[in-house]
């Protein structure tokens, strides 16, 4: 919806990029506004902006005035965002209940994730931009919903039945429910985790499995996937007791969805990385750890939605993706915004995409 800048509040999400007098982008779509960024808009004499109907905390944004209410009613771009943020906040509430000792209501998880999966599969580009919504404070809750969505999308592209796509979504959402049984200090620790911290965190798949093992809604193979989603094909990962067993197909999908969203999201102790960079690391640095068919399914899907995207390179330059070679999808050909120089990132190994704008 289009609102006056003076009515903005912290937590608003831009639904369209904002350009200055020189027709250069000042802020990009999906930017989460802070007090400082709102002041910057006012300093640039930006009088009105387009924002989503839902704040980053999942609450409805109710400005004092909407510039064009009729246009706002016709706007559907915020539908997915609204559903997603509501799902995150519902999951957050359920997670707090689990911390207090409540049992997992799998039916409730199914209720919040299935409509979101259906909506996302109508426009898969939404799924591949989930990392823009995640924030440090609520990472745990964004991560749960995002694993479910990314996993279900991969399963759909791999021609799984609709029932199994939904099962992957539910399993992905509940893969980390066992984090609720860890000491709260570990969830939002600002500094780098210690060896002792990791030892505790590595227990969460076992807790997750115990919390859902009696559910009649979740297939047994998905329950196993929840237990072993941090396992790796080369025998590394955790829990260690599972490393001698081959991972099932659901486990392989949820494992990739989990690590992809984790590495592309801002964490309290680690900066986010671009999806291209993460997929390159999964393919090469972590070769042999993840199922190659699952990784390539995610990569090819991501690439198909990336042509024309604006990106920031690791040297700070802004560029546009103009071509992606099927044989080297993590390193596309880009055109620099200012000089219009064409750069083939597959031939310039010191450069890579740092961020998708």
TrEMBL record:
This is Phosphohydrolase. PANTHER family: CYCLIC DI-GMP PHOSPHODIESTERASE PA4108, CYCLIC DI-GMP PHOSPHODIESTERASE PA4108-RELATED. Residues 118-314 form the HD-GYP domain. It comes from the Bacteria. Keywords: Hydrolase. It comes from Peribacillus muralis. SMART domains: HDc. GO terms for molecular function: hydrolase activity.
């Amino acid at each position: 919806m289009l609102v006056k800048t003076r009515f903005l509040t912290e937590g608003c999400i831009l639904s369209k990029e904002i350009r200055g007098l020189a027709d250069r982008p000042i802020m990009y779509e999906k930017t989460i506004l802070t007090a400082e960024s709102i002041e910057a808009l006012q300093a640039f004499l930006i009088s009105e902006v387009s924002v989503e109907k839902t704040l980053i905390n999942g609450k409805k944004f109710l400005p004092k005035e909407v510039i064009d209410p009729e246009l706002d009613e016709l706007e559907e771009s915020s539908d997915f965002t609204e559903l997603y943020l509501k799902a995150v906040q519902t999951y957050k509430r359920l997670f707090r209940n689990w911390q207090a000792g409540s049992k997992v209501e799998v039916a409730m998880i199914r209720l919040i994730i299935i409509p979101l999966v259906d909506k996302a599969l109508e426009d898969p580009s939404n799924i591949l931009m989930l990392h823009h919504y995640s924030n440090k404070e609520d990472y745990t809750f964004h991560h749960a919903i995002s694993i479910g969505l990314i996993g279900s999308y991969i399963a759909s592209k791999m021609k799984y039945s609709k029932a199994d796509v939904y099962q992957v979504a539910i399993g992905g959402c509940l893969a980390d429910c066992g984090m609720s049984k860890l000491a709260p200090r570990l969830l939002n620790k600002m500094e780098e985790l210690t060896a002792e911290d990791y030892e505790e965190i590595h227990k969460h798949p076992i807790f997750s499995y115990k919390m859902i093992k009696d559910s009649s809604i979740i297939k047994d193979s998905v329950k196993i996937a929840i237990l072993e989603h941090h396992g790796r094909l080369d025998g590394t990962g955790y829990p260690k007791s599972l490393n001698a067993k081959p991972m099932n197909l659901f486990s392989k999908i949820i494992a990739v969805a989990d690590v992809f969203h984790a590495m592309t999201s801002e964490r309290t102790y680690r900066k986010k990385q671009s999806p291209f960079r993460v997929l390159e690391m999964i393919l090469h640095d972590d070769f042999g750890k993840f199922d190659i068919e699952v990784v390539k399914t995610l990569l090819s899907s991501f690439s198909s939605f990336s042509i024309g995207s604006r990106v920031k390179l690791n040297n700070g330059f802004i560029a546009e993706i103009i071509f992606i070679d099927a044989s080297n999808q993590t390193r596309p050909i880009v055109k620099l915004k200012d000089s219009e120089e064409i750069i083939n990132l597959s031939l310039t190994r010191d450069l890579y995409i740092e961020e998708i704008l």
